[in-house]
Task: inverse folding
């Protein structure tokens, strides 16, 4: 059997200490396999973002173990192996939109502007490629952030409430763009509190109060 992309055992994340300690993620064990489409579903404060940041290698666990057997050591995760769509785009204000989107490819020493323009067109921003981020609306900036995460076709794509700044119709269209660009080879995990978004994924991980409560697949009994 092919090694999982990500494997975690008794993973926890705590913030603070003593009486002020907050358990953001209680002891959690899981694996993520190539090609899976996972919805990380739960209300705000349930631990979704904490788990995503650990899977992305952007944060370190307080205890337990996480590894990326199907990708490589932590230093191999970025800029190309893992893509991350954040709740807010965080575009670099001094770079044009196309330069922002091309950045992961340039950091990975690959040509990027043509690919960046192509993916910008696919999310409806082809005419905004040469503008600066402050010339975009909040929803347009979020779409540019989505384009930036898609442009290098990562092995693992993580998305933290990617449609939270968009209306329902645009959010569904952006999810379609994410699924289309991800293709069959990209593993996808989306954190969301929207049942309509979660319903389009194949696997549902339900979270609550910092715990991974249930993992179910479509068609499971």
Result:
């Amino acid at each position: 059997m092919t090694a999982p992309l990500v494997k975690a055992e008794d993973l926890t994340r705590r913030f603070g200490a003593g009486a002020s300690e907050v358990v953001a993620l209680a002891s959690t064990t899981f694996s993520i396999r190539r090609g899976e489409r996972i919805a990380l579903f739960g209300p705000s404060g349930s631990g979704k973002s904490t788990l995503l940041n650990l899977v992305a290698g952007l944060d370190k666990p307080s205890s337990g173990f996480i590894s990326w057997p199907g990708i490589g050591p932590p230093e191999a995760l970025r800029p190309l192996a893992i893509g991350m769509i954040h709740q807010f785009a965080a575009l670099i204000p001094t770079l044009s939109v196309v330069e922002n989107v091309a950045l992961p490819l340039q950091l990975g020493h690959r040509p990027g502007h043509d690919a960046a323009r192509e993916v910008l067109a696919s999310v409806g921003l082809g005419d905004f490629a040469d503008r600066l981020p402050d010339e975009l609306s909040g929803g347009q900036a979020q779409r540019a952030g989505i384009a930036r995460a898609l442009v290098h076709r990562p092995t693992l794509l993580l998305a933290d409430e990617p449609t939270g700044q968009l209306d329902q119709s645009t959010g569904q269209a952006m999810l379609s763009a994410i699924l289309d660009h991800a293709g069959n080879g990209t593993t996808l995990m989306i954190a969301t509190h929207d049942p309509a978004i979660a319903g389009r994924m194949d696997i549902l991980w339900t979270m609550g109060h910092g715990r991974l409560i249930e993992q179910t697949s479509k068609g499971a009994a």
User: Anything to note?
Assistant: Helices lie at 48-55, 97-107, 113-122, 138-150, 168-182, 195-198. Strands lie at 6-15, 22-32, 37-41, 63-67, 82-85, 156-160, 187-192, 203-208, 211-217. The domain at 34-60+71-217 is CATH 3.40.50.300 (Rossmann fold).
